[in-house]
Amino acid sequence: MVLIRGPSGLLLCLAVGLSLLAATGAFQTCPSVCTCKWKNGKRWVECRNRAQISIPDHLDIETQVLDLTGNNLQILPREVFSRHRLLNLQRLKLANCNIGQIDPTAFRGLTNLVELDLSGNLLNTIPTPTFSDIPFLRELALNNNPIQRVENLAFDMIPQLESLDLSGCQIRRINSRGFTNSKHLHRLYLHNNKLIEVKEKLLTNLNGLHSLTLHDNPWQCDCTIRPLINWLTEQNIPMNEQPRCASPPRLQGDRFGDVPLQDFSCFPEILASRSKSEVSLGERGSLICRVRSEPVGAITWYRDGIPVSNSTAHQIEERLTIYQTVDGSELTSHLVIENVREEDGGSYLCVVENTAGSAHSNFTLVTGYFAGSAALSTGEIVGIVVTLILLVLVIAALILLIIQRGLPDKIKGKKHISEVPMSHTNGMSSSGGGAGGIAGMNGGVGVGGVGNSVNTSSWPNGTYQGSEQTNSKEDLLLTQLNTSYSDEQPSGYSATNNGYSNPDLIPPMDRNTGKNFGYSSIIHINVPYLPVS
Questions:
Q1: Taking the complete model, does pTM exceed 0.70, yes or no?
Q2: For residue 177, which of 145, 216, 149, 148 has the smallest C-alpha distance?
Q3: What integer pLDDT is reported at residue 512 of this predicted model?
Q4: Which residues pair with 220 in a beta bridge?
Q5: Do 432 and 450 meet the contact criterion of CB atoms below 8 Å apart?
Q6: CA nearest 442: which of 431, 453, 430?
Q7: Mean pLDDT of all residues in the chain?
Q8: Is it the case that residue 437 has pLDDT exceeding 90?
Q9: What is the layout of strands, in order, in the sheet containing 91-93?
Q10: Is 244 in contact with 256 (CB distance < 8 Å)?
Q11: How far apart, in whole angstroms, are the C-alpha atoms of residue 263 and residue 440?
């Protein structure tokens, strides 16, 4: 035992004492079921495997790391950590605590939290709503939970996430936007799930990965997994264990890296098209076979079990042409026969093959004489349409011309009738239009709508009853057309006719002399005698 005397020894003892005091004084309280200590420069509280059903009381509010692994919490209620005043937590370990329900506000107030371990619990969905209170989280462990699906925007509220462990779950599907806003994600663990494919759009959000695990999934190694294979090749992400194919049987157990790219293929499919074609003798006949194949396969035509191609005659000689067009994963083969003969008719077989397998379909060419069998060309159809349009325009122009030529005559006739000058006599009203028609009064006749009087002195008294007679439009027009005018006052005319006087009528005046002409311009209407029945 070495004793240090003097001032230096006293200082050393003081320093050791202060450090011990600081170490013990860092935890003002520590529950009996927990261990409180300094570890890696953090205030740790470990309460592991204590069968606790809730967060222990009297935890030090300055706790930075809380480890509750192996307890029986089952539920994390609302604001549970905030109510315990554990607002300084940076790491929270809740693995294997039988947690099946987490309130959306359970982590409220934990703005300093950067690491959360929820592995080995009973969560069947990702607790996305709880992430809004821990926006600076960098590490999240959800492995070994019965999670079956990663929904869109599942981790959108924790954009600083760098490490995500989803291994050992039951994930069957990851939506295409499942990792949106995860640009800082460097480590992703997806092994030991039930994934059979990964969508191509999903991969565009994972270009920052440095580590990825995909093994122990039932991968279906057909054309649907080709985007993942291409992406893995381009990114060149190191994997400790290569994923293996679970299907199809021809690739079962093979590692991704050992399978040629063209072998990741799907069975080809014959698309719907017309399987029967009728063509007249001497014309061009064609059969069209449309298929979907990824990768693009080969199409072969057969006639009577013998392959038909551009290089084989097969009784068709040089009249046969076969050509193909490709549009993505769709392939179209055209079999064309010029100057069709009767023997060209019959059944043709279209067969498509790729590395996954083959598919076939029968087509029939019917030969003979068919009325109207020839289809109109594009030029002929355009010509017919243009002709119809021109015909409609010509008919419309003729109708418009007829209407325009008939309209002035009607307008002119109306104007002529409206300009007929008339005066008033026999006590008839001059107010420009009456009840219409011709009205008789004391042997006089009035023209309705004009309001002027007519001379009917030559009509026998009692032979016309204006109040009872109704003239037609033709009679009225005839009356107007038979109207004659006189510049002089007729003989025997007087202001009083048949003993009837109208003091309201004002005779016309000569503008030069200022004298009244008297009642001039008397209208004479020649109306045939209408006997009263």
A1: no
A2: 149
A3: 57
A4: 247
A5: yes
A6: 453
A7: 79
A8: no
A9: 35-39, 42-46, 65-67, 91-93, 115-117, 139-141, 163-165, 187-189, 211-213
A10: yes
A11: 110
